[in-house]
């Protein structure tokens, strides 16, 4: 993970800020804490702040703090940081390694939810396209509820080349798309080295990516509903995989 791009982000709230300060994936530049707030009195925040250079920590009165942030849900803490997305694709020898690839997902709330889901579902990393995709932003970080600080985010120039990279490292590639050739999602063996590919809002997984995948799977819907939101689909599959590898 030596090649990377840094994205400036702002994050508020005790849990997300705690995870960011603790994370090796996040470079914290400034921490603003409101005096006598929940964050000010939080022992975990105090302990972490004692371990970093003190010129990065600023204690503010209520008025000064509120001038820094436009939210009443901050719990008295705001951080300014840089989050990295990596351009060097990962190599692994782990038996049950798994990465999620997002084919042009553009909604920051979807990416944030997916980072949170993947962090909680034992996924090793999330890969986005470097064009026509949302990247790391403050909104993504906030929605992820700390997930952004716990799982690596990679950016790929070409998904099909990325697929070849993983195939050479003995990964099985499964794309999730509603079509007549797709298998039901619960019939796919997700154990072992797995790549799970999900399409963006509207366009789905591209035809060439489907062609290069080993399997295509779908989540059947009822009541004339066509598909799930991409973050909901990722949740269903990621936790089905976690169930399978936990048996």
Describe the overall structure.
The chain contains eight helices and eleven strands. It is α/β, with parallel strands linked by helices. It folds into two domains: 4-84, 60s Ribosomal Protein L30, Chain: A, CATH 3.30.1330.30; 89-246, SPOUT methyltransferase, trefoil knot domain (Alpha/beta knot), CATH 3.40.1280. Strands 1, 2, 3, 4, 5, 6, 7, 8, 9, 10 and 11 form an eleven-stranded mixed sheet that branches. Helix 1 packs parallel to helix 2 (43-50) and helix 4 (108-120) runs parallel beside helix 8. The longest helix has 17 residues, at 230-246.
Question: Can I get a quick summary?
Answer:
The chain is built from 8 helices and 11 strands.
Fraction of residues in helices?
25-40%
Radius of gyration, in Å, reads 20 Å
CATH topology grouping of the largest domain: Alpha/beta knot
Please give the domain count.
Answer: 2
Structural class: alpha/beta
What's the level 1 CATH class of the largest domain? Alpha Beta
Mean pLDDT: 92
Number of strands: 11
Beta-sheet strand percentage? 25-35%
Q: What is the straight-line distance between the termini?
A: 31 Å
Largest sheet: 11 strands, mixed
The helix count comes to 8
Low-pLDDT residue intervals, each spanning 5 or more residues: none
Q: Which descriptor suits the 3D outline?
A: elongated
- The CATH superfamily of the largest domain is known as SPOUT methyltransferase, trefoil knot domain
Query: What pattern of helices and strands is seen along the backbone?
Result: EHEHEHEEHEHEHEEEHEH
What is the annotated CATH architecture of the largest domain? 3-Layer(aba) Sandwich
């Amino acid at each position: 993970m030596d090649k990377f791009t840094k994205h400036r982000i702002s994050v508020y709230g005790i849990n997300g800020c705690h995870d960011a300060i603790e994370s090796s994936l996040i470079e914290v530049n400034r921490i603003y804490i409101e005096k006598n707030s929940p964050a000010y009195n939080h022992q975990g925040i105090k302990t972490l702040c004692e371990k970093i250079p003190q010129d990065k920590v600023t204690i503010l009165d209520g008025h000064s703090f509120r001038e820094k942030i436009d939210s009443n849900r901050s719990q008295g803490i705001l951080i300014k940081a840089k989050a990295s997305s990596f351009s060097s694709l990962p190599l692994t020898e782990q038996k049950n390694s798994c990465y999620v690839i997002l084919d042009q997902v553009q909604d920051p709330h979807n990416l944030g939810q997916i980072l949170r889901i993947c962090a909680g579902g034992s996924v090793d990393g999330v890969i986005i396209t470097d064009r026509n995709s949302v990247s790391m932003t403050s909104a993504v970080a906030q929605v992820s509820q700390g997930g952004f600080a716990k799982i690596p985010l990679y950016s790929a120039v070409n998904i099909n080349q990325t697929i070849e990279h993983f195939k050479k490292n003995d990964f099985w590639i499964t794309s999730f798309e509603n079509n007549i050739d797709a298998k039901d999602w619960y019939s796919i063996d997700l154990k072992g080295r797995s790549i799970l590919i999900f399409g963006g809002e509207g366009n789905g997984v591209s035809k060439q990516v489907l062609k290069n995948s080993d399997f295509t799977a779908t989540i059947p819907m009822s009541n004339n509903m066509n598909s799930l939101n991409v973050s909901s689909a990722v949740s269903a599959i990621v936790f089905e995989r976690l169930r399978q590898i936990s048996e």
